[in-house]
Structure formats: structure tokens, C-alpha cells
Write a structure and sequence with these properties.
This protein is α+β, with helices and mostly antiparallel strands and 145 residues long. The chain is 31% helix and 39% strand.
């Protein structure tokens, strides 16, 4: 089983995402990509605005679980490529915190795989987010649909 280390410190830069897309242009058997970008929202909770989310993870377990997910998703869908990156540390509102990139010969497998992967990452990986408010108080974030 191939181990993948998905973590980046802080927000995922737009340049990193564009370079990842650019690096696939030489792969001539790919006909469809699906990209999901998770972004930190400036939610208002009890009158306080979210300024950012501080992400933490049980990294060893997350890497193991993501490697299992990778195997399952590759066996279920006809994919040619799959990349997952998740932020650790503080990501300010508007910052990208999750980047999922799947590729296949045709669009549908890439889209279905990306959708399932995002849902399962949020449900199954030991990654937690602490919402930091403008008054420096915080609450642990609950993953919702």
C-alpha cells in the first residue's frame, strides 16, 4: 500500500494548486479532472465572526487511513491519478484548507471519486478544526455536509 503524506502547513497556496494542474498536462491519457477546494468560511457563530481555523491531526493515523482510502477509491473507480492535500495549523478565513484532485480517462469516475473521497476524508480521518473567533475565543468545529 502506497503511503501518502497529505499535510501542508497553513493555507494551500493557489500557486501550488495551479502547478499541480500544470504537471498533468503531459499525461495524454487523462480526459477528465475533478478538483475540490475546501475554503475557510467567515461564519458568524453567536454574533462572533470566524477569523480562521486551526487544524490538528493524529498524523500517523491519518496517513494510514488516507492510504487505505486511496486503495479503496482506486479499486472502485477507473482513476489514473489522485492527490489529496490538507492543511495543518492556522488557515485564515478565505484560505484553502483541502485540495482533492482526481483524474481519469472520462469525467464521471473523476467526479464520483472526488465526491466520495471528500466525504470520507471529513468523516474518517482524525483531523480536527478549531474555529478561532475575532475576540480570540474558539470552539471545536463539527463537520457538516
Amino acid at each position: 500500500m502506497k503511503k501518502i503524506y497529505p499535510f501542508l502547513e497553513g493555507a494551500i497556496p493557489a500557486e501550488f494548486i495551479s502547478e499541480s494542474i500544470q504537471s498533468h498536462t503531459h499525461k495524454k491519457d487523462i480526459g477528465g479532472h475533478s478538483i475540490f477546494l475546501g475554503q475557510v468560511r467567515a461564519d458568524i457563530v453567536e454574533g462572533k465572526e470566524v477569523e480562521g481555523i486551526e487544524f490538528t491531526a493524529y498524523q500517523e493515523m491519518a496517513v494510514e487511513k488516507l492510504s487505505q482510502l486511496r486503495e479503496e477509491i482506486f479499486s472502485k473507480y477507473d482513476l489514473l491519478c489522485m492527490h489529496v492535500y490538507h492543511s495543518l495549523g492556522l488557515v485564515k478565513k478565505g484560505g484553502i484548507c483541502l485540495f482533492v484532485f482526481t483524474s481519469s480517462k472520462h469525467r464521471k469516475p473523476a467526479m464520483l471519486a472526488s465526491d466520495e473521497l471528500v466525504e470520507r476524508i471529513k468523516k474518517e480521518l482524525p483531523i480536527w478544526g478549531k474555529e478561532i473567533f475575532s475576540d480570540n475565543s474558539y470552539q471545536w468545529k463539527e463537520n457538516k455536509q
